[in-house]
Amino acid sequence: MYVIPNLHIVEWADLEALDISKLNQPGGKQELAVQVLRFIDKNGFFYVKGHGLSDKDVKRQYAIATEFFNLPLEEKTKYLANTAAGDFRGYKAKATGDLTSKDNDERYNIPKFTPEHERPHPQLILDHYEEIKEFSLHIHNKILLPLLRVFAIALEIDEEYFVSRHRYEAEGLEYLRYMKYHPDPKPIWAIGHTDYNTLTFLFHQPVAGLQVQTKDGWKYVRSEPESIIVNVADALEFLSGGYLKSTVHRVVRPPKDQAGRPRLGLIYFARPEAKVRLEPVRSPLLERLGLQRDVEEGLASVTAEEWARARIAKDHRFRAGIVKTRETEIIAGVHQKYYD
């Protein structure tokens, strides 16, 4: 599953790569902050290298994901997520019948390993619980938090500003996702959208399909074994006063030589703590550039958890056929845009 065939695809997006192993070097944080300033207000997709996870670590998680999706459906559906209530923890099955065109993927979301999220899991997950926990904690502590410090330095604010809003032990719906797209003849598998969390981490996956919207149109995102694809999401855009852009991306049907294969994904969604309000930071950099903004209308009283739950529940209503067209308003008059 890790051999990349001879893909007949055209343009790859030209993305920057942040080597976070430099953080341990003198001046490393400042060097990375300068690099961030070169691209982050234009394209919130980038690569992270030097992250401390081996190819073996990633393959191990993919092996567990494969075993999970091979479980009988009746076993997986014992652990259904309550997406109607805005809760993604647990399993989501792919749709059947008339709804198949809207929802052709399976997911299993494993939340933070804190007392708040203690819940039943399939025996397969329990058998590998400690290694899944170690993998998740590494992402949070060794990749997410260092990146948040780099962003803070770039914005010329306290280095711990974003970190203090992402404490692992605090309440919040951060999770690791195993995901499987089933082969589908339709050209677009996930319509262009932004994510609603802080940062999304996408691990190496050889079946092409992920595209990012650039000023020159949609371009494929290359997945390399040694790199993690990272994209900025809504919560970080709000918290950074709009400077760190929530990236528009989509998933399309893979090229012909891969179109008949399932597309397995390993993704980590980092989120702010549940009670964090989505207010923009006061930044000397933004003040100097004339970009300092006040809180987006409607968001002044909205927490990160309320924003996430509202988006999940809205997405559920469309996927489940409760509403026939996609709703645009998320919460408190704040709207979501969709992109073809």
| Helical residues, percent | 25-40%
* Uncertain regions spanning at least 5 consecutive residues: 1-7
- The CATH topology is Jelly Rolls
Give the helices and strands as they follow along the chain. Answer: EHEHHEEHHEEEEEEHEEHHEE
Q: What's the architecture in CATH terms?
A: Sandwich
Rg, please?
19 Å
The overall number of domains is 1
Helix/strand structural class: alpha+beta
Average residue pLDDT = 88
Q: Helix count, per DSSP?
A: 8
| Biggest sheet architecture | 8 strands, mixed
- The beta-strand count equals 14
What's the shape? globular
Strand content: 15-25%
Please give the CATH class.
Mainly Beta
Please identify which CATH superfamily we are dealing with.
B-lactam Antibiotic, Isopenicillin N Synthase, Chain
GO molecular function: metal ion binding; oxidoreductase activity
Protein name: Putative 1-aminocyclopropane-1-carboxylate oxidase
Pfam family, one: 2OG-FeII_Oxy
Keywords: Iron, Metal-binding, Oxidoreductase
